[in-house]
Write a structure and sequence with these properties.
The complex is a heterodimer.
Chain A: E1 3-7, E2 11-12, E3 18-25, E4 34-40, E5 47-53, E6 58-60, E7 68-73, E8 78-83, E9 92-98, E10 108-109, E11 113-117
Parallel strand pairs in A: 2-11
Antiparallel strand pairs in A: 1-3, 3-8, 4-5, 4-9, 5-6, 7-8, 9-10, 9-11
Chain B: E1 9-12, E2 18-23, E3 35-40, E4 47-50, E5 64-69, E6 72-77, E7 86-93, E8 99-101, E9 105-109
Parallel strand pairs in B: 1-9
Antiparallel strand pairs in B: 2-6, 3-4, 3-7, 5-6, 7-8, 7-9
Chain lengths: 119, 110
């Protein structure tokens, strides 16, 4: 059973960089699947941030592309999110997720972590 | 990319069937059979209910079914139960190798 756990600061200052890590257990991230980050502002809907494939190819939401980087660390079996130049609008619960056997869907999810952007 | 359009709310009585629509364009919903549906209870992570338009992951009740016609996908919940009360989101793969979620629908069991 694939398990995902997000970690990172819960508070980030405006204009700084948000950095989160998703630790994966129960599966080797280098094997297959499709890994991604999704966020949800308080009281609002889901927004896809970006995804990375086993090949290492990354794809990002066009509205965030200039500020987002997703990377994979196979030695630690984890993947990461960096979002630069954050503003209050980036305050959200951030989820990491995996496709499992169902490509282009997210079958496994982390519990989510709230990141607040505030000075 | 614009969010897929869903009704803000849908309601039904226990035992009834309800349908939630998800409208996109030929560049997403209409162009690919990669539409998914997620259920989210308050304070919880989303749960995958349907993938590839109409397929159910292991363990998901057969009361949930999906379909697509043109640029609109639909999720039908049959035999509505109190535990089905939640927010539901569709998502689709797009022509630019990205994904887009729907605006979300709150399902209320009367």
């Amino acid at each position: 059973q694939v398990q995902l756990q997000e970690s990172g600061p819960g508070l980030v200052k405006p204009s700084e960089t948000l950095s989160l890590t998703c630790a994966v257990s129960g599966y080797s991230i280098s094997n297959d699947y499709y890994w991604g980050w999704i966020r949800q502002p308080p009281g609002k809907g889901l927004e896809w941030i970006g995804s990375v494939y086993r090949s290492g190819s990354t794809y990002y939401n066009p509205s965030l592309k200039s500020r987002v980087t997703i990377s994979v660390d196979t030695s630690k079996n984890q993947f990461s999110l960096r979002l630069s130049s954050v503003t209050a609008a980036d305050t959200a619960v951030y989820y990491c997720a995996s496709s499992g056997d169902y490509y282009f869907s997210f079958d496994y999810w982390g519990q989510g972590t709230l990141v607040t952007v505030s000075s | 990319q614009s969010a897929l359009t869903q009704p803000a709310s849908v309601s039904g009585s226990p035992g009834q069937s309800i349908t939630i629509s998800c409208t996109g364009s030929g560049s997403d919903v209409g162009g690919y059979n990669y539409v998914s549906w997620y259920q989210q209870h308050p304070g919880k992570a989303p749960k995958l209910m349907i993938y590839d338009v109409s397929r159910r992951p292991r363990g998901v009740s057969d009361r949930f079914s999906g379909s697509k016609s043109g640029n609109t996908a639909s999720l039908t919940i049959s035999g509505l139960q109190a535990e089905d009360e939640a927010d539901y989101y569709c998502s689709s793969y797009t022509s630019t190798n990205t994904q887009v979620f729907g605006t979300g629908t709150k399902v209320t069991v009367l």
